[in-house]
Amino acid sequence: MNKLLTTVSAALVSALALNSAVAHDQVPGDKQDSPIVLQGGILHTVANGVLTDSDLVFEHGKITAIGREVSIPDGAEVIDISGQHVYPGVIAMDTTIGLNEIEAVRATRDAREVGDVHPEVAGHIAFNADSEIIPTVRNHGITHAQVAPEGSLVAGQSSLMHLDGWNTQDALVSAELGVHVSWPRTYVINTWWERRSAEQQRKANKEARQQLMKVFADAKAYYDAKQADLAINVDQRWEAMLGLFDGSKKLYVHANDKRQLEQAIDTSQEFGFELVLMGARDAWRIADKLAELNIPVVFGSPYGLPGRDDEGYDQDFSSPARLAEAGVNFAISYPGYWDVRNLPFAAGNAVAFGLDQQQALTAITLKPAEILGVADKLGSLEVGKSASLSVSEGDLLDPIGQKLTHLYIDGRKVSLSSRHTELYEKYRQKPSE
Amino acid sequence: MKKVHQLSALTLAVTSVLTASVVADQTSRTNGMRDNTPSLTAIQNATIITEPGKSVSNATLVIENGTVQSVERNNRAPAGARVIDGTGYTIYPGFIDPYSSYGIQASAEQERSETPIYNNEREGGNAANDAIHSQKNWFSEFKTNSEDANKWVSQGFTSVQSANLDGIFQGRAVTVSLADKIPNDVIYQSTAKHFGSFDKGSSQQQYPSSLMGSIALVRQTLSDANWYKSSYGKQAHNQPVEFNAALDSLTTIGEQGIVFKVSDEKSLLRADDVFDQFNVPSVYVASGYEYARLDAVKNAESDLILPLNFPAAPEVEGVDGHLDVDLADLRHWERAPSNPAMLANAGVNFALTLHDLEKSERFWPNLRKAVKHGLSEEQALAALTTTPAKIAGIEDKAGKLAQGYMADFVMVKGDVFADGTIQSVWLQGEENELVSRDEVDFVGTYRIDWNGQEVAVEIKPGAGLAGEVKVGDKTSALRHVESDTESLSFVTDLELAPAGSWRFKLEPEAQDAFAVTAVSPEGDEITLQAQMDVPESKAETTNETGSVEYASELTFPNVAYGLNGLPERQDVLIRNVTVWTASEEGILEETDVLVRNGQFSAIGENLSAPSGVTEIDGAGMHLTPGIIDEHSHIAIEGGVNEGSEAVTSEVRIGDVVNPDDIHIYRSLAGGTTMAQLLHGSANPIGGQAQVIKLRWGTDANIMKFDAAPESIKFALGENVKQSNWGDNMTVRYPQTRLGVETIMRDGFQTALEYQQRKQAYERMSRLERSKVAAPRPDYRLETLIEILNSERFVHAHSYVASEILMLMEVAEDFGFTLDTFTHILEGYKVADEMAAHGASGSTFADWWAYKFEVYDAIPHNACLMKERGVLTSINSDSNDLQRRLNTEAAKSVLYCDMDPHEALKMITINPAKQLKVDRYVGSVEKGKHADFVLWSHYPLSAYARAEQTWINGRKFFDRELDKQHQQTVKKEKNALIQKVLAAGDDAKEGAKDGYKPAQPTWHCDTEHDFWLDHFTGKGHQHGGQH
What we know:
The structure holds two protein chains of two kinds. Chain A has helices at about 1-20, 135-140, 170, 200-225, 235-245, 260-270, 285-295, 315-325, 345-350, 355-360, 365-370, 420-430, and strands spanning about 35-45, 50-60, 60-65, 75-80, 85-90, 90-95, 140-145, 155-160, 170-180, 250-255, 275-280, 295-300, 330, 390, 405-410, 410-415. By secondary structure, chain A is of the alpha/beta class. In chain A, strand 11, helix 7 and strand 12 (about 295-300) form a beta-alpha-beta unit. Chain B is built from 27 helices and 45 strands. In chain B, strands 1, 2, 3, 4, 5, 16, 17 and 18 form an eight-stranded mixed β-sheet that branches. Chain B has an eight-stranded antiparallel beta barrel with strand order 19-20-21-22-23-24-25-26. In chain B, helix 10 packs across helix 26 (about 960-985) and helix 17 (about 735-760) packs parallel to helix 20 (about 800-815). The longest helix of chain B is centred in the C-terminal third of the chain and has 26 residues, at about 735-760. The two termini of chain B are about 60 Å apart. At the A-B interface, helix 9 and helix 12 of A face helix 15, helix 21, helix 23, helix 26 and helix 27 of B.
């Protein structure tokens, strides 16, 4: 009894301590109430190439003019950004930002529900808008993040969040984008930590595949029953998957091996799912097919170590270039949470290994916007789109270039401070001995 | 495989299997009638191989009372002997397996305790570690077991060396005959070799939990045995020297030697280093991979015991099969059968064993395969007889056929190394027939003259007897086909008058002539004659040696992207390159760099090219010193942590460097040329570190950079107090940062007191020393003394401010300087204090939030430390980041405007200073090692790509060559896959787990029990963070 009490109170204490520790101090920006003119910058529009020495105007959170001779609206704040670069907000796909705070501390993890099949859970529900992680990520020009639950089979649904919110609802851009599935393994591995024999592994792989196919079949039966107006009770799991069958939700399949990718394609064709391949390390092996079927790929290993001993050291570095060459519709992600801030540099690394620089930028801005269904608002610098953009003294994709001077999300001026800059400032003031 | 010819079978004297006990045991009483059957036996007309390379034909082997009486060349049998006709037979000395557990009860497999066990149960003066059983003399537990013996006997073996194969020092083996008699009669050598391995086996104790821990334990134990030898009976500092049966048994290991099982050729070399140090003669139970490092194995100058567990081919049949198989495994599938021949031709002595064979019946097919791959029959026979006899300590009684030797031999119809059949195995003069000598092989076609009409009966080869009968065009099958030594009988339907089921019996009369008895459907018996067509023996080409062609390359290491040898040292002049000197000179544009004799010999403008120097156009490129990583865990084998106990300063990463790790090559491709391989962070005082140069294509010792002073890993915080390891790991001291401090102080205090005892002993007179034992040499404490003497430098895993201050205070109290705090993420909070102490800092560029103690980590850390005067570097602690430390260093430019050249210094000259090797490497300066990288672009940029990476004037990476290499890997792999596919079902024969398991990516806190995984298959692991 005593022990239980102590445990509970200890838990409370630590929860309190953590809450106070994880609430960051950056105040979300005010709603844009007057026009802003960014004057004389190098505009990486993504949609229409690079415009040098150009201006960009935005009002009420939307871009209203782009060009060399724009008229300055009354009451506009004019900011001289001569020689600086303007980029559309980077959209990080495949993240657990806001769900995970400290990986090793279980109480701060909210990404992985128990069980194999939980399509009903949605990423935005537990999104912590006050996560200390968020400012450190957006300070690299990342304005939006797809937040996806994790799981062993059917993980849940992802949501698109902007990174300057007061709370979950405020930060939510788009809920329930689609259902995320970790595709069952299709191969066997030989390492000391895999204690199952090849035979046992094959059996387990097969069973997981069967389980997944049953999930789709059951969800389909539920959908069909609903379509036929049968009197059925609500099943939250299948309810969450209805959108897959009417085309309102996408199926995000997390898989790397060629055979997994092929199975995911076959299954999606069978059920008529709109498929997005996540991770997709082997996508280059079936690049022509992916291009032909126009299946979007979110390549998740831009800094990957080769997946197999016989692959070249630069296999993953050069995969984006190969996908581009084959005409695959692809984005680049850097899955994770705190380290997502390196996404622009990971895209830059793909340039070192053959990817066109504009395509690299597109792969972290417009392509994610298209895949997430928000390209009408985000992903490029175009009139009518959201004023979610960054201004950098140098190249956003290069650590020796990137230096953010301004960051806007829907026209709101976003603080560039973070837990990191604050601790930096604090300890710069520590007197020397 | 009944290939016994009929004629000889017919003419052989019929002998019954001798059932009497030839050598009566001497101490048992006889109940009932005594057995006094005479045992004098002579086998005549045989070819007798008396020992490898010595053959006598038409000879007689005379045996009596279990021993060989003589080998008579004149082919005469002594009067009164039983005579056996050995025409057509070859007699070999009985085969000896020097590595087995025959007749010894194996250790029971038991569930591991969920909570860790740090001390073992003490009984009978055993060792303090539960993996050491050296006091065991396995003869005392030996029991004959004829059923188990059959595994060996059926393959021609007559004796084995045996022990319980469990633990690190396993005790002394016993060499026994496989005869089915009481132990008293079959024990040939009661105290044979010590047995051992690096695997702690069934031990429940935590220590050792890694390969390096096992190596350290072997070293300490052998040292203890030496100490015990000179100390037992004397007074130690606190009491008389204890009785220790385990050490006592090891005091004579230098004379007896050890048979030591290793997992691969690299561990063979590791073991050999240790045993050489203590002058312990060693024999290694090898892995089959020795061919991959043949020269080094040869230089070990030890005998080997080779299992013949050639692997089954990897599965490549599926259209995606190539995705799951590595070139390295395909190569091994092709090369494994050549291993015995390669060793033999290199002059390495070895014996063969059934050990590790899934099925003992695979032994002969595999040995014949080895012969086909170039092993000579004489070498093979030596590996089965004289060599194992020597290893098992029975060379005076077995392994040869000569007077006085045991009558242990094998009778083979034909050549046992080609297609012969082992007919019988004689154990101490008793015959065990595997195939009856009288057995008649009826396979063939019999032509029966049936009143002028030919009736052809065909008996087909194969497992069961089957066949058909042909009369004219009509064929019908035989039923109820039976045979014994004298006749063949069957039933078949014939349309001969009268039609119906006929019964037949065939009996041999003369060579190829048979009497046929047929009974008609009506019951009439007819007698006929049959002539047999002897089937033509399939001419097997098993004796063609060395004719096997290989599709695989043999490289160093023998994996994809391996090299043919050390790259050649070149003198080069790089022209018009932008040089980042990492020295006072800063960045020099359009400069020439001359490399000669592995060093930078000139840096300047418009250098003249000496003759014989290759010029490289460096225009547009950047040249930097090779990147140096202060904190790496690549190229480590068998566990990165000996995290079992809180202090393990005796273990050495240098013992387990893995030159086969592909990450060496991948890191070269990212510009890294030197790395400090650190022990993990699972305990406060970890193991000794090893600085290497990334010399891909060499062996472990060549990779080691000997000029680097010794160093060691310490660790602080969450990992050492086991914060994230679950509820079971909560009993080891320390569990708090408070305890981390005290255990370190106590460790150093212990070391000081140990040193004082040693010094006191040094001062003693000879008389005093005759009564007082020398302090027991303790490698753990010796290492700590090196730290106290500033001969070994500490690199401490550290995160938070308090623990950094704590450790510096401990160091100051004990009079040494803490060298480097590694991945010190809160260094920025205590930079002034570090600078005052003289400690340097190595940090991650931007890692944080993966655990609570890194929640205050900031990417400005490097700048703040540097600004406050701390020597600062950026480390990887990751096989991924080690490939791109250039852009990690760039993050200090990004976050806090560090000067780019200063940023580059953080991955070159600064870590060189931290490792105290800056005299040799770390900058582009005249006289320093020519370790450098040519970059395609500004080297701190995301767009930079390493084009070439050089170490000591040798080019270890070249992007253009790599492109070609990627193609050749693909081509060679395809050729090998073709070979597997062409081999069909033959390729499926072999060991199912015959390949090396992949080594994992080690992290700082990858803390799992390496051995536990092996033994119980129920491992558990913590980690994945840093």
